[in-house]
Amino acid sequence: MSNFLSAPINLAATLQSGQVFHWHQEPDASWSGLIDKMPARVSEKDRRLIIQKGDPETIAKHFALDHPLEKIVAAFPKDAMSQAALRSCQDIRIMRQPRWECTATFITSSMKQVAHIRSMSLAIRERFGQSVEGSKISAYPSFETLAASSAAALRDCGLGYRAENLLKTARILAEGGLDLDSLAKQKNPLLRQSLTKLPGVGVKVANCILLFAYERLDAVPIDTWIHRILLAMRGGRDGTATELARYARRRLGPYAGYVQQYLFHHARSLKKSISPPSP
DNA sequence: CGCCAGGGTCTCG
DNA sequence: CGAGACCATGGC
């Protein structure tokens, strides 16, 4: 896997595109974070990953440096929006995330901005996570740990009504009601159906988990941003969730999840850049 | 300060 | 099945 270290990656955009939420940038512009319980520090030079701390194999796998970006890019739709997103977000990668951590953070993500998902993630880590030597932040707590916590304690981390969902899901997993790893053999529709049995996991969050933790690169989470984009692609014609999902799958191609990620990040960076300067 | 955010769930037609 | 209400919280 470490022989992929020459593969291109847009590190900053990858880490800021709403996939993972706990990485932070150091004064020297490198990025520090945890891959499960392993501290890592990486930077980017000429679109290549420079490793300053952490096991190269683990890092290369986490950042999915083996994903065939050329093939993925070639499969992008040819419409103006997809191509604009492709140009502005070049070399973003869909990372391979730990399943529970991904499931938990996206349960907290509903009706929340990226910045607040981050603050909730950091609060949960600080309150419940194991400290890690060589890391400023703690590991994401196991579902056993969260199962033994309380809704009130999770609310203290800013989760609001999502606290009960995360607690219930942690308890289901702790009691063996579902095994995230054994789901990996299921095909997309069944996997999605299995995941949506968890409290706080609907179709959108399930698709995030499929894309980010099960490497289903054709899975398309439809949030408010992607919904608006699909609407525009359809000439303003809205539809049911099922219709839009079918449209996205057909329109965005075999790597629809990748296309979706580029569209999402591009739309958000546009919005940020055109926000009026404060007086 | 008011709007909106990587939505899920329950109810009612 | 599909539309609507409600759910807490904080960034911008």
Describe this structure in words.
The chain is built from 14 helices and 4 strands. It has about 280 residues and is of the alpha+beta class. Among the domains are: about 60 residues, TATA-Binding Protein; about 120 residues, Hypothetical protein, domain 2 (Endonuclease III, domain 1, Orthogonal Bundle), CATH 1.10.340.30. It has a 4-stranded antiparallel sheet. α4 packs across α14 and α10 packs across α11. The relative contact order is 0.13. The mean pLDDT is about 95. The structure holds a DNA duplex (13 and 12 nucleotides).
Q: What value does the Rg take, in angstroms?
A: 19 Å
How much helicity do the residues have?
A: 40-55%
What's the CATH topology name of the domain at 99-213? Endonuclease III, domain 1
Main sheet properties: 4 strands, antiparallel
Could you state the order of secondary-structure elements as H and E? HEEEEHHHHHHHHHHHHH
**Beta-strand content estimate:** 5-15%
CATH superfamily of the domain at 99-213: Hypothetical protein, domain 2
Query: CATH top level of the domain at 99-213?
Result: Mainly Alpha
Distance between the termini: 49 Å
In short:
The protein has 279 residues and is α+β, with helices and mostly antiparallel strands.
Topology diagram in text:
Elements: H1 11-15, E1 24-25, E2 31-35, E3 38-45, E4 48-53, H2 56-62, H3 69-74, H4 80-88, H5 99-107, H6 114-128, H7 143-147, H8 151-155, H9 162-174, H10 188-195, H11 203-213, H12 224-233, H13 241-252, H14 256-274
Antiparallel strand pairs: 1-2, 2-3, 3-4
Helix pairs in contact: 4-14, 5-11, 10-11, 13-14
The chain binds a DNA duplex (13 and 12 nucleotides) through helix 6, helix 9, helix 11 and helix 12.
